[in-house]
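Per reviewer request, we include the raw input and output of the structure prediction for the construct analysed in the revised manuscript.
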Amino acid sequence: MFSAPVPADRFLQLSSGSTSVTFQDPTGEPTAATGTVTASVYRSDGTLVQASVSTTTGSTGYYAAHLSSASVAQLELLTVKWYDGSTLRKQTAVEIVGGFYFTIAEVRAIDPALSDEDRYPLSRIQQGRALVEWEAERIMGVSWVPRYRYVTLDRPAWPQLLLPDPMIRDIRIVRAYNAPTSTIDYTSGTSFDDLAGTETGIAVSRSGAWSWCSVSAPFRSLTVGYEHGFDAPSPDVKDAALLHLRHKLNRRTAALSDRATSQNNDFGAVTLATAGVDFATGIPDVDSVYARHSYRTPGIG
């Protein structure tokens, strides 16, 4: 199983908002555009959703564009292309999700220190939440909120198609590419309703009529877009994820160095758990919950 990098922004489905970018010079410092900045928004399959969206600006190099209702109507992983005049300057990602593991208010309530909005601004907590959700999914091998993925796969020689994620909710796009140039778009065909996803991540034909095998183009010749994940995290997963985030937000102020593997106290030497082993966070109360709910096959990354 594989996971995509954490997107720059996450939006709740049907909740519009603005996404932003900061242009940088060759040294990585913010720099202003030389022309009019616009943004174009594309779905994961390359479909254009918004073209030449006007932007607003703030600090040097910062530009923001508003996502339309059409952009956030479905679970998606959008690509935003930012133009300085006619020149493409940068691309960013925006993920449209069906929920979050917890709210910002719940984060601030778990620790009195986190209620300090100057010390812990909204952007910092949002970024931390996205990272914790991504790490939790990577460790457990399943998403606890509805998400969308668009993948290119090899075409198998058997009726079942194994997708990278379990808990398949809906299969929206299936396209097969045959040599040299022909394409079969199953999405628009009447037989598409015959395809179903399973909790184990297998796409199957209800009638057995689908055939994925292609001698002429077996490798990387099938693209599938699908929704996956639970409706919401279970209470213990939510509690563990909150603890995971509190650790990330407060680790720079912890009395013990992140590099420490043991410490001495009144009870003698104490060995501390460390992250990075077998998909673990290094936080026992978190790892025990994540392990209990894991969909990952032991020994397989």
